[in-house]
């Protein structure tokens, strides 16, 4: 600080910062990207370890042996499912009752804001069936949840059957300290959402459901099970939840530890772990795994039934059985044992899972990057925005804009307000105008919503950059500087807050938004920069993410397929917001897009 | 017939004079015992044999009385004031086990041991030093702390009303203690504190964690169960410890209070390895003053030790609906406690009049009927004081074999449950749901909630709704909490409409504790004790309001005041609530450290940004300053 209180040295420092502003910014940007890519390099990451004492050293001997019975149950369940053309509620209730559980049902209904074309549903009506295994001599204060979605077609029968077989086995054991809830939910996430809202007696998404009759105290952890074949080659762990929330890392560690113990192949993001980190392929593999996690987390949707539990501070993960063409197979008994082991260790918990990390990235199941390692990558990008604020021209106008009599305030306020109104329109109109759109154009409701959104987005580009001239005539030199200053600070705050909650989203937005926003002035070649700005706008970021994601899951798509995917991603985003309260769509529509429009305004200032 | 009875009673005198020494050497007795005896004779055609003759154990009772009466007559003109300490020889001990096969296939075993102590040490100037059957450790506690009534229970597990029906004596999970002090006590809180610490030592439990922050004085929910109608709740203290874990170390001191210990009688069945291999375990001690006889001319102290246990069909019964004493307790019965005046095993066979539901062996001809919890129940009785009970093998191993299967949920007339609604760590809402399943009768219930201070209740958000209509409680007693001093106490009298669900909700905010106030495992959560629903539930059959000695113990615990209803207390489940908890680990330290660094950095930056810097001008030499002084007087421009 002595350096800064000396006026001469201070002058030298600011001089340096202003003179070398652009090179420093470029270096920061590149360093941020390189840092981020370096996170996947194994020597820079930490090995995962079990932090929770109660789950660490306690020995569990797995004795579950009725895998075969589970498979025959799966056939029975399938037959009843076909007969009932949906969830065989009565059969499930009987099956659970005969296994000594307290069984309850919950019916729910939900009208989607517009038809979901991916899953072909609009009016959703369903029933959840759940059975509670009451722990002996426990006062109903704590519970664990095992859930299996009852999916249409013949998928997931094995999961439900294994759930029932586990229930039967668990019921005969004396060692339970927490009640165990076995939940079979219909309509995947909607059912889970209805059940969770019913259990916690909240209503945040306008779901209609019947109140729950049986409860078991506060839920400590949840596992969601998805199995569609009798034998599997590997088990995939899904962690990404709603709004990019992740369960405690110990849950992943637990899964990994039992996979190791029982010799089950385990994957994350569908990718097996490789040991050759020092080769280029090994690094690429780890980087791809991590990029997949970043992309999945950034989109803020729940990638399995577990994702909705996280809002209620319930640590949850989905375990998904994958049957590919490898010759190494695992049978249902082993999966049952794996789950038994996990549940028993969770049963041993004295406290909620809290010892390990909640913010992490996983380049593989045995390696993790903690928040302390990945945050600098974002910090290096965010600091560019602050450095640009101290840019000489801008610094000067800072003091000007503080004067109340400055003519700049009004000229700045107008574009800010208009951009935000455009944002509000983008948030509200697509869903509300769908009926009108369907009447006038030959499109379906879903298409109407997506196309309205795109139309408003595009209209926003044309609309605001003319407005400030109506109020104050010619745009002044000072005016755009004040606007840029405001916009830069606004963007820095927005991205900073986003990255704290959902690092991946904040980072991806920073990568695309920072370079153009940092360099934009009205004195640039307008046509060229307009194209560049549009190509780096939030909508195009989503489009790139779609292509990268398809590339990473080894299912590359053509441009037209990519476009269709892009449209469905937008509709899914709006649906996720309406159904489960995902915040990515409102964040983009109400804050990021208006902020970007402010920079667009600067480009067309005079 | 009369001659036959006389003969029987003679036989019994011979048998029991060796066992029950107290009744034969009991020479001091009240004169009016005589009249009472006649009444009780007329009152007792309750235990009916299959062929209609009076049951033998009934005679047994009367045998004791008639000898007493004879002795009294011989004694002549004794008055009640002659009740000296020597009269403590009237102490009495009874033991009883009730086995109820439950609807769900589980089995419920309820032990009751009752010790009567014929003394009144609360009288002025009386010092009791002679103990026979009554445990001295408890007797001393009673007299030292002027306790009028004491109820303590330790429970592991939650009573599942929907599957098991009502228990004989309800208790909340964890430990519960409520005490009525004598109204001569001046420092009730001091006595209470000492008492909890002493009991903590006696029962090997953490009762010493009871302090003023979890003690309440309910105004209406807990009335004395014994003699005397004290209503001033200043002398009442009630506390629960929902977190208390009950295990062997609590069972052993409890067993030691029994006159026979666990050496003889029913107590041989109390082996901890089986008792704790169950779904529910509850043990309790209830001490209260009772009438010695119907006219209530003399008082006695009653100590009831109860132990309730439910064995699970799947974990303890291997899924087979077949229960025996040996399977349940890994012991069989071979004798009664020699000190006991009565020692009986009751098996509830109400649902099984023709033996189509289950099979009970060995069969017993003795049947008994009792009105329990609003229902007339029939019991098979095994009298352990009779040698025939044990048969050839000299051991009694009751065997119950189910034929049908139940498993459907029950609909008890009164049922309550509770949960926390909402998510996040700032606010929440406590929901208490009370069900009245009576088809056409409305009845009032008293709801008592004691909530720790760290859940700050918003009492203005209290709502009571039944059938989606507002239900205004006719009586509300609310005592707000004081941070770190006392909990919230909320008592309400709510009328439950027939066949309805009543929901009581109240919102709360979670307090941020000081960092030393967190428990060692703060992320486990904090417990809120069960709420208590007390009610007089309309009875299906006429309740028996008469006080008779030979009622089975389990049906005579709560005094019945009117015929049309019976008293039920229902405890809801305790709550586990998470409070905002700092991460007491290394990241927490890192955060603290970072915050400090940021604060220091911020301070200096702020300083730099707001301070204006000026170059310091060197001060003038002394000569120039003097010259300037003169120049100022002259009005000439100053030198610099």
Give your account of this protein's structure.
The complex is a heterodimer of chains A (606) and B (640). With 606 residues, chain A is an alpha/beta fold. Chain A contains 23 helices and 12 strands. Chain A has helices spanning 2-5, 7-19, 21-38, 53-56, 67-84, 89-98, 157-171, 188-199, 249-262, 280-298, 332-347, 371-389, 392-402, 408-432, 434-440, 445-462, 467-472, 477-501, 503-519, 526-535, 538-552, 559-580, 584-603; strands at 46-47, 102-116, 121-133, 142-150, 179-186, 208-209, 218-226, 234-238, 266-268, 315-322, 360-364, 367-370. In chain A, strands 6-2-3-5-4-7-10-8-9 form a 9-stranded mixed sheet, sandwiched between helices. Chain A has a 3-stranded antiparallel sheet with strand order 1-12-11. The two termini of chain A are 42 Å apart. The mean pLDDT of chain A is 88. The termini of chain B are far apart. Chain B has 12 helices and 26 strands. Mean pLDDT of chain B is 80; it is low at 1-88. An 11-stranded mixed sheet of chain B has the order 5-6-4-3-7-8-2-1-10-13-12, with helices on one face. A 5-stranded antiparallel sheet of chain B has the order 15-16-22-18-19, with no helix packed on it. Chain B has a 5-stranded antiparallel sheet with strand order 20-21-17-24-25, with no helix packed on it. The longest helix of chain B is centred in the C-terminal third of the chain and has 25 residues, at 586-610. The interface between A and B is large, with 33 and 53 residues.
Describe, in short, the structure shown.
Chain B: Keywords: Signal. By secondary structure, chain A is of the alpha/beta class.
Strand runs of chain B, count: 26
Strand content of chain A: 5-15%
Uncertain regions spanning at least 5 consecutive residues of chain A = none
Largest sheet, strands/sense/barrel of chain B? 11 strands, mixed
Class of secondary structure makeup of chain B: alpha+beta
| Separation, N- and C-terminal Cα atoms of chain B | 139 Å
Largest two-chain interface: A-B, 33 and 53 residues
Residue share in β-strands of chain B: 25-35%
User: What is the strand arrangement across the widest sheet of chain A?
Assistant: 6-2-3-5-4-7-10-8-9
Principal-axes geometry of chain B comes out as elongated
The major β-sheet of chain A equals:
9 strands, mixed
What value does the average pLDDT of chain B take? 80
| Whole-angstrom Rg of chain A | 27 Å
What's the alpha carbon Rg of chain B, rounded to whole Å?
A: 33 Å
Average pLDDT of chain A works out at: 88
Tally of contiguous helical segments of chain A: 23
Order the strands across the largest sheet of chain B as they lie in space: 5-6-4-3-7-8-2-1-10-13-12
Class based on secondary structure composition and strand pairing of chain A: alpha/beta
**Intertermini distance of chain A:** 42 Å
Compute the number of strand runs of chain A.
12
Tell me roughly what share of residues is in helical segments of chain A: 55-70%
């Amino acid at each position: 600080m002595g350096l800064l209180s000396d006026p001469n040295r201070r002058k030298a420092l600011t001089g340096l910062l202003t003179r070398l502003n652009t090179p420093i910014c470029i270096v920061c940007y590149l360093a941020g990207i390189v840092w981020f890519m370096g996170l996947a390099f194994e020597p820079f990451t930490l090995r995962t370890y079990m932090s929770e004492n109660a789950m660490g050293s306690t020995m569990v001997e797995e004795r579950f042996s009725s895998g075969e019975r589970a498979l025959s149950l799966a056939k029975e369940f399938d037959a009843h499912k076909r007969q009932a053309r949906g969830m065989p509620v009565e059969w499930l209730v009987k099956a659970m009752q005969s296994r000594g559980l307290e069984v309850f049902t919950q019916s729910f209904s939900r009208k989607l804001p517009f038809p979901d074309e991916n899953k072909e549903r609009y009016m959703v009506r369903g029933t959840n069936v759940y059975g509670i295994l009451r722990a002996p001599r426990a006062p109903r204060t704590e519970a664990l949840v095992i859930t299996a979605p009852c999916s249409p077609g013949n998928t997931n029968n094995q999961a439900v059957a294994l759930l029932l077989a586990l229930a039967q086995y668990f019921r005969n054991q004396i060692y339970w300290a927490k009640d165990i809830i076995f939940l079979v939910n219909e309509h995947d996430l909607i059912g889970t959402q209805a059940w969770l809202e019913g259990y916690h007696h909240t209503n945040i998404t306008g779901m209609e459901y019947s109140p729950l009759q049986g409860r078991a105290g506060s839920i400590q952890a949840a596992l969601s099970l998805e199995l569609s074949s009798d034998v599997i080659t590997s088990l995939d762990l899904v962690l990404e939840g709603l709004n990019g929330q992740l369960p405690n890392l110990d849950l992943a560690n637990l899964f990994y530890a039992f996979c190791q113990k029982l010799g089950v192949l385990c994957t994350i993001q569908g990718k097996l772990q490789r040991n050759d980190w020092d080769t280029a392929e090994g690094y690429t593999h780890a980087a791809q795994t991590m990029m997949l996690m970043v992309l999945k987390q950034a989109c803020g949707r729940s990638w399995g039934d577990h994702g909705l539990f996280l809002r209620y501070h319930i640590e949850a993960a989905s375990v998904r059985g994958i049957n590919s063409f490898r010759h190494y197979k695992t049978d249902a008994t082993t999966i049952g044992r794996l789950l038994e082991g996990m549940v028993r260790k969770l049963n041993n918990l004295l406290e909620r899972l809290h010892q390990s990390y909640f913010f992490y990235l996983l380049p593989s199941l045995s390696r993790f990057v903690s928040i302390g390692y990945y945050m600098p990558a974002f910090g290096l990008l965010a600091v560019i925005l602050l450095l640009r604020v101290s840019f000489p021209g801008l610094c000067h106008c800072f003091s000007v804009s503080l004067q109340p009599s400055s003519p700049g305030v009004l000229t700045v306020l107008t574009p800010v307000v208009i951009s935000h109104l455009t944002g509000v329109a983008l948030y509200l109109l697509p869903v509300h105008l769908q009926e009108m759109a369907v009447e006038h154009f030959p499109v379906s409701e879903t298409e109407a919503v997506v196309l309205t959104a795109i139309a408003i987005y595009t209209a926003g580009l044309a609309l605001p950059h003319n407005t400030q001239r109506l109020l104050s005539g010619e745009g002044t030199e000072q005016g755009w500087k004040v606007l840029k200053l405001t916009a830069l600070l606004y963007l820095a705050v927005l991205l900073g807050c986003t990255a704290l909650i959902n690092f991946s989203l904040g980072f991806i937005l920073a990568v695309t938004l920072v370079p153009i926003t940092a360099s934009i002035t009205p004195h640039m070649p307008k046509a060229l920069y307009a194209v560049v700005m549009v190509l780096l706008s939030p909508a195009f970021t989503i489009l790139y993410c779609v292509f990268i994601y398809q590339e990473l899951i080894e299912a590359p798509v053509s441009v037209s397929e990519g476009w269709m995917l892009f449209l469905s991603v937008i509709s899914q985003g709006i649906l996720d917001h309406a159904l489960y309260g995902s915040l990515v769509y409102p964040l983009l529509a109400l804050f990021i897009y208006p902020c970007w429009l402010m920079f667009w305004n600067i480009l067309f200032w005079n | 017939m009369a001659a036959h009875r006389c003969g029987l009673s003679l036989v019994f005198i011979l048998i029991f004079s060796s066992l029950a020494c107290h009744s034969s050497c009991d020479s001091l007795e009240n004169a009016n015992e005589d009249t009472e005896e006649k009444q009780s004779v007329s009152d007792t055609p309750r235990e009916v044999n299959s062929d209609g003759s009076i049951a033998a154990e009934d005679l047994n009772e009367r045998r004791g009385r008639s000898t007493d009466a004879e002795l009294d007559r011989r004694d002549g003109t004794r008055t009640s004031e002659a009740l000296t300490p020597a009269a403590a020889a009237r102490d009495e001990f009874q033991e009883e086990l009730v086995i109820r096969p439950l609807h769900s296939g589980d089995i419920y075993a309820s032990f009751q041991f009752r010790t009567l102590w014929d003394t009144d040490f609360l009288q002025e100037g009386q010092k009791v030093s002679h103990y026979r059957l009554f445990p001295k450790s408890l007797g001393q506690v009673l007299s030292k702390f002027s306790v009028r009534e004491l109820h303590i229970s330790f429970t592991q597990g939650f009573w599942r009303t929907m599957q098991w029906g009502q228990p004989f004596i309800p208790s909340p999970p964890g430990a519960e203690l409520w005490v009525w002090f004598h109204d001569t006590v001046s420092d009730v809180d001091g006595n209470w504190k000492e008492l909890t610490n002493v009991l903590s030592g006696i029962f090997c439990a953490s009762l010493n964690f009871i302090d003023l922050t979890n003690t309440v004085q309910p105004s209406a929910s807990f009335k004395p169960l014994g003699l005397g109608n004290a209503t001033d709740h200043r002398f009442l203290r009630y506390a629960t410890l929902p977190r208390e874990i009950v295990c062997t170390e609590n069972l052993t001191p409890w067993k030691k209070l029994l006159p026979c210990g666990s050496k003889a009688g029913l107590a041989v069945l109390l082996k901890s390895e089986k008792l704790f291999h169950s779904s529910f375990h509850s043990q309790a001690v209830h001490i209260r003053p009772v009438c010695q006889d119907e006219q209530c001319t003399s008082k006695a102290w009653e100590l009831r030790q109860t132990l309730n246990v439910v064995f699970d069909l799947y974990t303890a019964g291997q899924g087979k609906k077949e229960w025996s004493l040996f399977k349940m307790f890994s012991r069989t019965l071979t004798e009664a406690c020699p000190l006991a005046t009565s020692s009986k095993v009751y098996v509830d066979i109400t649902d099984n009049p023709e033996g189509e539901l289950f099979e009970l062996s060995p069969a017993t001809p003795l049947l008994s009927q009792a009105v329990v919890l609003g229902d007339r129940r029939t019991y098979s009785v095994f009298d352990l004081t009779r040698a025939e009970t044990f048969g050839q093998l000299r051991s009694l191993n009751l065997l119950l074999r189910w034929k049908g299967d139940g498993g459907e949920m029950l609909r008890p007339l009164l049922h309550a449950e509770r949960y926390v609604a909402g998510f996040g760590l700032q606010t929440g809402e406590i929901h208490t749901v009370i069900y009245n399943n009576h088809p056409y009768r409305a009845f009032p219930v008293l709801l008592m909630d004691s909530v720790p201070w760290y859940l700050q209740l918003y009492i203005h958000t209290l709502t009571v709704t039944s059938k989606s209509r507002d239900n205004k409680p006719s009586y509300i007693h609310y005592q707000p909490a004081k941070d770190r001093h006392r909990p919230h106490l909320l008592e309400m009298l709510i009328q439950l409409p027939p066949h309805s669900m009543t929901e009581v909700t109240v919102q709360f905010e979670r307090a941020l504790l000081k960092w030393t106030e967190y428990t060692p495992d703060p992320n486990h959560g904090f417990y809120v004790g069960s709420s208590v629903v007390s009610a007089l539930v309309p009875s299906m059959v006429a309740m028996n309001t008469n006080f008779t000695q030979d009622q089975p113990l389990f049906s005579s615990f709560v005094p019945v005041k009117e015929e049309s209803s019976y008293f039920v207390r229902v405890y809801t489940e305790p709550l586990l609530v998470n409070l905002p908890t700092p991460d007491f680990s290394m990241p927490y330290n890192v955060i603290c450290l970072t915050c400090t660094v940021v604060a220091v950095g911020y301070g200096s930056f702020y300083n730099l940004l707001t301070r204006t810097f000026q170059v310091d001008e060197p001060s003038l030499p002394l000569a120039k300053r003097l010259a300037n002084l003169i120049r100022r007087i002259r009005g000439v421009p100053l030198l610099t």
